[in-house]
Write a structure and sequence with these properties.
With 108 residues, this protein is of the alpha+beta class. It has one domain (2-106): 2-Layer Sandwich (Alpha-Beta Plaits). The chain contains four helices and four strands, in the order E-H-E-E-E-H-H-H. It has helices at 15-19, 66-76, 92-95, 103-106, and strands at 2-4, 25-27, 32-34, 54-56. Strands 1-4 form a two-stranded antiparallel ribbon. Strand 2 (25-27) and strand 3 (32-34) form a beta hairpin. The two termini are 24 Å apart. The chain binds FE3-S4 cluster (F3S) (2 copies).
């Protein structure tokens, strides 16, 4: 899947969400996250990000490698203040802004 790394934090341009054909890019408080279970690897989001935050998981820059697992954990871990993981809800428009970040992002 594709991954959103640190340059998105506090930028949240959201051009990526308009490109995604399966609506699998979800909004936290300070960053967006790609659902690895829903991303179909089309790559349409990558070129539109003005800060180049998006890349395929195996091409994420080494110093941002923690964001590969972190994008996954946004959906499989129980986020602070919630009772259950987000899982694969089938579309970010359906869910709306989640308004919470993973600890990795919240602590930056
Ligand atoms: Fe973030 Fe870039 Fe999308 S800044 S919201 S990954 S267009
Ligand atoms: Fe969507 Fe980007 Fe994946 S456009 S399907 S998140 S590669």
């Amino acid at each position: 899947p594709y991954v959103i790394a640190s340059p998105c934090i506090d930028v949240m341009d959201k051009s990526c969400t308009e490109e995604c054909p399966v609506d699998c890019i979800y909004e936290g408080e300070r960053k967006l996250y790609i659902n690895p279970k829903e991303c179909i690897d089309c790559g349409a989001c990558e070129p539109v990000c003005p800060v180049e935050a998006i890349s395929q998981d195996r091409r994420v820059p080494a110093d941002d490698h923690a964001f590969v697992e972190d994008n996954r954990s946004f959906f499989v871990a129980v986020l602070p203040g919630r009772d259950e993981p987000l899982g694969a809800p089938g579309g970010s428009n359906k869910v709306g802004p989640v308004g919470i970040d993973t600890p990795l992002v919240a602590d930056r």
